[in-house]
Amino acid sequence: MAQGIEDRGIFAQSRSRLLRQERDASQYSPLNLAFIGDSVFELVVRTILVEQANRPVRELQRRAGRILSAAMQAQMAEKIVPLLTEEEEAIYRRGRNAKPHTKAKNATLSDYLKATGLEALIGYLYLKGEDDRARALIRLGMEVAEASIE
Q1: How many CA atoms lie within 13 A of 85 on its CB side?
Q2: How many CA atoms does the CB half-sphere of 118 hold within 13 Å?
Q3: Residue 86: what pLDDT?
Q4: Which residues have CB under 8 Å from 116's CB, separation 6+?
Q5: Cβ contacts of residue 21 below 8 Å, gap of 6+?
Q6: CA-CA distance, 41 to 44, in Å (whole number)?
Q7: Which of 7, 41, 46, 130 is the most exposed place for a label (fewest CB within 10 A)?
Q8: Contact by Cβ (8 Å): 72, 42
Q9: CA angle, 23 as apex, 18 and 27 as ends, to 5°?
Q10: Whole-structure pTM over 0.85, yes or no?
Q11: Residue 105: which residues within 8 A CB-CB, separation 6 or more?
Q12: What is the dihedral of CA 55, 116, 69, 16, to 10 degrees?
């Protein structure tokens, strides 16, 4: 173990540092949730792609780019929203209804807002320590993405 870091997963280590203030995950702004959720989402997607097959990096980048696009995330969100708990759906709506100061280059505003809602949800689940739920939702969403990439 490096310099006294407990033997826990990287998610748990990062989360414990961030949450030392004992703040409830739902108290973060939806755009802060989306900010952290974007990174978690990307890491999980890239991990799943590597787990699927030992592909050339160019192919991994191409697939990841398509899956991580706002348009694809919007499609994923449409698939998983009916499966969310009331609490999760409320977080998704907060993210979707947030007023971002930027817009994705190649996405409609509607897609961008749905993607922001999805990222906010993933960020929320990450901060709550519900990594399995976050991964399960991302995997469900990836079924949509994989079908359109193939």
Answers
A1: 6
A2: 34
A3: 96
A4: 30, 31, 34, 95, 96, 98, 100
A5: none
A6: 5
A7: 7
A8: no
A9: 110
A10: no
A11: none
A12: -20
Average pLDDT score over residue span 28-50 = 93
Give, in degrees to the nearest 5, the angle at Cα 20 between 19 and 23: 50
State the chain's mean pLDDT as an integer: 84
pLDDT tens-place string over residues 51-90: 988 899 999 999 999 999 999 999 999 999 999 999 999 9
Residue 114's CB: how many other CB atoms inside 10 A?
Answer: 24
Could you give the number of structural domains in the chain?
A: 1
d(CA 108, CA 71): 8
Q: Is residue 60 part of a domain?
A: yes
Torsion of CA 9, 15, 96, 135, to 10 degrees: 10
Query: Active site residue: 38, 111, 131, 132, which one?
Result: 38
Confidence band of 16 (pLDDT split at 50, 70, 90): low
CATH code, 97: 1.10.1520.10
Residue 122 vs residues 7, 57, 148, 150: alpha-carbon distances, Å:
24, 25, 22, 25
111 a catalytic residue: no
E strand map for the chain: none
Residue 4 lies in a domain: no
Establish if 3 belongs to a structural domain. no
